[in-house]
Amino acid sequence: MLNQVITLIDQANSQDPNTEIYNAQSLPKESLYATRMSEMLARFNPNADELMQIAVRGQHIERWQSPRSNFAMNKQGYHQWRSALYIFHASRVIELMQQVGFNEAQQQRVYAAVAKQDIKRNPDSQLVEDIASLVFIEHYMLAFTSTKPDYDEQKWLGIIRRTWQKMSVEARDFVLAGNVTLPEPLVGHIHKAVA
């Protein structure tokens, strides 16, 4: 059932009209993201159970269907968009789990993790948050900086610190131990932010 639901998630994400170049190939953006999430989980917690493998793989499922532009372009709109995304992604993963026969308890556990319910108290939700943060640091933080050329050092330190605060002690230790490739131009900011 694990392989079946992973295949369904991958099929859904393969429909992403947005692409990213990776290894000289143009790939659907969310397919690449999902693969990176699974790879990071295997590095950070190789003993993660099947349900957490599903949660991590489906964390961004079909994200392009709920664009940021559907919400007000202010701080409140951003938070509304994020909350709506959590529910959307969790619901889509559950639909696919139902198709292949996962039981109600299994579905609810994955729903809570993908919907980021009770972060800091629910270890499953925290694990998904940790993997997302680690993937952001390694693969997306540098590209994000290019979209915000007007941000000064204090703004970047704040963003890095907020990411750091969302992570568990174990995830922070994983970064500090050198298990994540830091974006070279931001290494100084990262060390300064987490010092």
Essential attributes:
mainly alpha, 65% helix, two-stranded antiparallel sheet, 9 helices, 195 residues, single chain
Helix count, per DSSP?
9
Element-by-element helix/strand order: HEEHHHHHHHH
Number of strands: 2
Gyration radius, in Å: 17 Å
Q: Which residue ranges are poorly predicted, with pLDDT under 50 across at least 5 consecutive positions? A: none
Largest sheet at a glance? 2 strands, antiparallel
Q: Report the mean per-residue pLDDT as an integer.
A: 93
Order of strands in the sheet with the most strands? 1-2
Q: Between the first and last Cα atoms, what is the distance in angstroms?
A: 44 Å
Percentage of residues in strands: under 5%
What does the overall shape look like?
A: globular
| Subunit arrangement of the protein | single chain
Name the structural class: mainly alpha
- What is the helical fraction, as a range of percent? 55-70%
Descriptive overview:
The chain is mainly α and 195 residues long. Helix content is 65%, strand content 4%. It contains 9 helices and 2 strands, in the order H-E-E-H-H-H-H-H-H-H-H. It has helices at 2-13, 29-44, 50-57, 75-100, 104-114, 123-146, 153-166, 169-176, 187-194, and strands spanning 19-22, 25-28. A two-stranded antiparallel ribbon has the order 1-2. Strand 1 (19-22) and strand 2 (25-28) form a beta hairpin. The longest helix is centred in the middle third of the chain and has 26 residues, at 75-100. The termini are far apart. The model has no long low-confidence stretch (mean pLDDT 93).
